[in-house]
Design brief:
Number of strands of chain A: 5
Strand content of chain B: 5-15%
Number of helices of chain B: 11
CATH architecture of chain A: 3-Layer(aba) Sandwich
Keywords (chain A): Phosphoprotein
Largest sheet of chain B: 5 strands, antiparallel
Structural class of chain A: alpha/beta
InterPro entries (chain A): CheY-like_superfamily, Sig_transdc_resp-reg_receiver
Protein name (chain A): Response regulatory domain-containing protein
CATH topology of chain A: Rossmann fold
Order of helices and strands of chain B: HHEHEHHEHEEHHHHH
Helix content of chain A: 25-40%
Modified residues (4-aspartylphosphate) (chain A): 59
CATH superfamily of the largest domain in chain B: Transcription factor LuxR-like, autoinducer-binding domain
CATH architecture of the largest domain in chain B: 2-Layer Sandwich
Shape of chain A: globular
CATH class of the largest domain in chain B: Alpha Beta
Radius of gyration of chain B: 21 Å
Oligomer: heterodimer
Largest sheet of chain A: 5 strands, parallel
Pfam family, one (chain A): Response_reg
Chain lengths: 128, 234
């Protein structure tokens, strides 16, 4: 286990950090360092700080009102060109069909985010 | 037959019609595997039976544990396995149990460490052959479940093939692809273009690969030269 993936989770619910952190700990092929930001402002500061970020997992809705259509373009405007995945407990809303237009790379349901899916995504995007 | 058509329309309305990229299809096949009590899936590209090729090289999409196919290839030849040979003798979906196999049949299941394998041969609209295999440790799968899995697999693969696998040669460039082509012609690198158009570098590389295919060229220099010749860019 020589490679390390630096994943930044942006989610306004700190409980998600624990839940997703547990999922990531079960990934065996890659060592994962999880960073966590509760707001989009914190995340924008984080990516600009120069800290390594192999991939961003972005909760679709951040309180009070932003969804990925605002948050992902904001990350891109700050110069982040790594993969961004949008996580949501409901991918059914029609606007999710346009996720690529907003600079996101993939979308995944929170319930689908298991260790196998994380391994696939890291492999797919070479995010190490 | 009518029930199948209704089923197709129902599933088409939900996930399949909405799937856009490889992660979406990963999600669909992964969910399908779990729904039928398997643990993993793999989509294999089938060439000529006599063509050499290892398991890892034939997998076009899969959720096998990282490194499993590569480890298998170090020890065994996939083309010697009974599953591979059967794929070149018949197109009937099949179920394989570790307990049923003998070593001289090429015991793929034991070699990979699973108890049950379902194999569904599929093909693209142009006849290109693939197979979707599901692996797990369940004891068995009922005939009815295999029928259902087969239909769901054929439907999912058809969408995957048309959306993600088919060569797009001859089709026109999308506005986003034309934009990226223009920036390439201005000498920008993938990371610079990612910054300019506000997407990831991975997305730019993916678009660039599609443009190469569509224009039937082998590198960025030839791409720009052909695009100018074809008056796609000035």
């Amino acid at each position: 286990m020589t490679e390390t993936a630096h994943i930044l989770l942006v989610d306004d619910d700190p409980a998600e950090k624990l839940i997703i952190g547990n999922v990531l700990r079960k990934v065996q092929s890659v060592a994962i360092e999880l960073a966590y930001c509760q707001t989009i402002e914190e995340a924008l500061d984080y990516v600009q700080s120069g800290a390594p970020v192999s991939m961003i997992l972005m909760d679709n809705r951040l309180q009070p009102q932003a969804d990925f259509r605002e948050t992902v373009p904001a990350l891109r405007q700050k110069g982040y060109i790594g993969p961004v995945g949008v996580i949501s407990s409901s991918l059914a809303d029609p606007y999710f069909q346009a996720f690529e237009d907003y600079g996101a790379d993939f979308r995944i349901d929170k319930a689908e985010l298991d260790p196998t899916a994380v391994e696939f995504i890291l492999r797919e995007y070479g995010a190490r | 037959m009518s029930s199948l058509l209704i089923k197709e329309r129902t599933s088409g309305d939900s996930e399949l019609e909405k799937a856009l990229n490889r992660v979406d299809f990963f999600r669909i096949f992964h969910t399908l595997a779990l729904h039928f009590a398997f643990e993993h899936f793999g989509i294999l590209q089938l060439g000529n039976e006599k063509d050499p090729g290892n398991l890892a090289g034939k997998l076009v999409l899969h959720d096998l544990p990282s490194g499993l196919a590569e480890e298998y290839d170090k020890r065994h030849r996939f083309t010697d396995s009974a599953v591979f040979k059967a794929l070149h003798q018949t197109t009937i979906p099949s179920l394989w149990r570790a307990a049923d196999q003998t070593p001289n049949q090429g015991n793929l299941l034991t070699q990979l460490g699973f108890d049950l394998l379902a194999c569904v041969p599929v093909h693209g609209v142009n006849g290109a052959r693939y197979a979707v295999v599901y692996l797990g440790d369940a004891e068995d799968l009922t005939t009815a479940a295999l029928h259902e899995l087969t239909f769901e697999t054929i439907s999912a693969f058809d969408h995957f093939y048309r959306r993600a696998l088919i060569s797009k040669a001859g089709m026109g460039l999308t506005p986003r692809e034309r934009e990226i082509l223009r920036w390439i012609s201005h000498g920008k690198t993938a990371s610079e273009i990612a910054l300019i158009v506000s997407v990831s570098e991975h997305t730019i590389n993916s678009h660039t690969a599609t443009i190469l295919k569509k224009l039937d060229v082998v590198n960025r220099t030839q791409m720009v030269a052909k695009a100018i010749r074809e008056q796609i860019i000035q």
